[in-house]
Amino acid sequence: PFDARLGHFERHARHTAAFKLPFPPVTMANSIASPEATDAFIIVSGIISILFAIFQFKLVSRISLTGAPGGGHSETLVSGVNIDTSKLIGIYEAIREGADSFLKAEYTMCAYFIVAFGTVVLLLVSYTGGEFHIEEGGLTCVSFVAGGLTSMLSGWIGMKVAVFSNARTTVMAAGSNPWTDAFNTAFRAGSVMGFALVGLSMLVLFILAHFFTLYFDKWDVAGSGEALKLTECLAGYGLGGSAIALFGRVGGGIYTKAADVGADLAGKVVENIPEDDPRNPATIADNVGDNV
Fold first, then answer.
1. Could you count the other beta carbons within 10 Å of the beta carbon of residue 206?
2. Of 13, 236, 245, 288, which residue is 20 to 30 A from 174 by alpha carbon distance?
3. CA distance 199 to 183
4. Does residue 21 come out as left (phi exceeding 0), alpha (psi in the -120 to 50 range) or beta?
5. How much is the mean pLDDT over the chain?
6. Residues sharing a CB contact under 8 Å with residue 49, sequence separation 6 or more, in sequence order
7. pLDDT grade for 169, boundaries at 50, 70 and 90
8. Burial letters 24-58, b for 16+ CB under 10 A, else e
9. Single pTM value for the model
């Protein structure tokens, strides 16, 4: 009886193998959208995000600090409230110069870190299973470097826009509708980095994924295991971005707190200068740290 049942199963298996579906099997991925449609959606979304960031920056840049001719509607905003922006511009230029110096010093250290830690990632990821797979380690290192550079570019954009918009937010706060105008200016400036970061990271990650498929050419073959290896290599992108963001977060926090304490001690205690007085260089440094 057992042999009879076994023969039945063998005949059923041969019959099933010989039967062909009139259409290819539908997976969850291609049931939602085709690969071409997915690629187009990612590319278009990234481009729209970057264009929207540029549009928001253009709105902020229309606010003039001097009310000179050619400033658009911003000329009436400044002259209408009848304020002297000469002192404001002086403080703004000092903060801008300090912010540029901070970015140069910090990103120099970040570049050293990317080179050193990228080498560590290359060696550690390459050595798996008791042997070296330098290709996989190299791709992970490429992802790490790309993530770090994307984070640095996004941080540079955010820092420049933050300093650029601070003085203009002050101008709008002195207008006839201060709450709404100042909030909208600050919010638009903040959205520049937000949308630029999302658009850049999406497009760079998309390019990396397609570039890695040149090596993992069987990533879409079931059971090959290359899809898992590809995503593991792409994980270096998040590591690089997070590491550089940590530098900005922690470095900026230490910078602004040290400058704040220094301004209070040297200014108010030693020289009897009022708090947040722009004559105190540490006050300018404190404002630079706030922008970080």
1. 16
2. 288
3. 24
4. beta
5. 82
6. 195, 196, 198, 199, 202
7. very high
8. eeeeeeeeeeeeeeeeeeeeeebeebbebbeebbe
9. 0.78
